[in-house]
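User: Is it possible to get a 3D structure for a protein together with its bound compound? The compound here is 2-phosphoglycolic acid. I've pasted both below.
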Amino acid sequence: MARTPLVAGNWKMSKTATEGAALARELRERLGSLDRVEVAVCPPFPALPAVGTALRGSGIALGAQDVHWEKEGAFTGAVSAGMLLDLGCRFVILGHSERRQHFGETDAAVQRKVRAALAVRLIPIVCVGETLTERDGGETLAVVARQVRAALEGLTGADLSRLVLAYEPVWAIGTGRTATPAQAQEIHGAIRRLVGQQGDGSATQILYGGSVKAENAAALLRESDIDGALVGGASLVAEQFARIVEAARPG
Ligand code: PGA
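Assistant: Yes, that's possible. Here is the predicted structure of the complex:
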């Protein structure tokens, strides 16, 4: 099954609304018309409206980096899926390892967020991945399987086709250390089999993330189960991000 590659930029806590709009305009200029590849940028909440305006009509989609599972109410500091949709978001990153590490996000919380996003037709980009200790302890597959199973629990086959997964080994995030294409492919294959246990996983895009750069993107994306990239640091530099998008475009 030919899956359209997706390259998503995770801006994390970088860029004000003004800076974000400038980066979006530069990206738009560099990328030109998009065909055979999907592109999204995920700025911090306050920059979403300005970046959305700057991207209008460009084909570059807008995404957020987190969401709360409730629709509204007394949840100070939280943002609902409906609010993101209203701002023109198409994607939302969920379960990023930094959320799990610094904000105590559990598998159960990720599961609730996935359902909240799907309920309004936002596309979740669900992040999974092992720490270095877990990898060294031979637990990679078990950890990833636990995270994937929890995120997908109770979803229907139709849900599975409206969801993106991202394998991001924690030891590769922001470290300059990337999984080798073979290491990544092994886990991506396992993730696709896990999705397959619950429905048809052949259309599900599975992204790789963790120190993806213009220099290593092509080799990773050549692997059969790597359908795109979730890019942190390199997504903040338009020229770098544009080169990764080029690497993702099928020849
Ligand atoms: P990085 O981040 O590309 O800076 O390693 C990736 C991510 O955390 O999504």
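DSSP finds eleven helices and eight strands in the chain. The CA atoms of residues 164 and 205 lie 5 Å apart.
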